[in-house]
Specification:
The chain is of the alpha/beta class and 213 residues long. A seven-stranded mixed beta sheet has the order 3-2-1-4-5-7-6, sandwiched between helices. Strand 1, helix 4 and strand 2 form a beta-alpha-beta unit.
Length: 213
């Protein structure tokens, strides 16, 4: 049941995928469902429901990805980093989280899916100083926007962007945007099979905030 649902969802997002990639995505959801019984990684229990609420919700960000070095802050169960790494093998993804059980799951997942382009780091974001900064920072339901930006600025390379996946609170959070950041876009996402309101905030750490909603 997973592969047909994944195939249909990817087609709705206009994301081409090989049979091998679809198999990897299905394997990932199967792993997530199995680990979830013991480690409670997500409130969603049904693997089919995970297709829209986790997998497609993560992949909806694809048109806004930038550069080759991408960090997924507070990756948790590997969302959105793992699905994006499957779909974009030429890009390098760092999956960052401070919780041991979550990084163990992601490490096992990357091994079983043979993801050579995804690297798991266990650390608090404010204490993580990589040797090379990132072209793109991803954050899905991690923290209030003002707090997220406070903790991630040191990860940004010149001309980088931060992509924050948010729910209905997106516009309210933008009203508290720190002065060092500006909004390049606030996009309503249409996630196949998902009724909940989803927004993508596209931000840049480049001077005073100037945004229009």
């Amino acid at each position: 049941m997973l592969r047909p649902a994944i195939t249909t969802g990817l087609a709705a997002l206009e994301l081409p995928a090989t049979p091998a990639q679809i198999a990897q995505l299905a394997h990932y959801l199967d792993l997530l469902a199995r680990w979830n019984r013991v480690y409670n990684l997500t409130a969603v229990r049904d693997p089919v429901e995970m297709v829209s609420r986790h997998l497609l919700d993560s992949l909806a960000v694809v048109p806004w990805l930038q550069g080759s070095r991408i960090v997924d802050v507070g990756s948790g169960a590997g969302l959105p980093g793992v699905p994006l790494a499957v779909m974009h093998p030429a890009l390098q993804f760092t999956l960052l989280d401070s919780h041991a059980k979550k990084t163990r799951f992601m490490t096992q997942t990357c091994a079983e899916l043979a993801l050579q382009n995804a690297h798991v780091i266990r650390a608090r974001v404010e204490q993580y100083y990589p040797a090379q900064r990132f072209d793109c920072i991803l954050a899905r339901a991690v923290a209030p926007l003002s707090r997220l930006l406070e903790f991630t600025g040191h990860l940004c390379a010149p001309n980088s962007r931060l992509l924050a996946l948010k729910g209905s609170e997106a516009h309210n959070e933008l009203q508290q945007l720190p002065a060092a950041w500006r909004v390049r876009g606030c996009h309503r996402l249409q996630v196949p099979g998902l009724d909940a309101e989803r927004w993508l905030l596209h931000l840049e750490p480049s001077g005073p905030a100037t945004h229009q909603l």
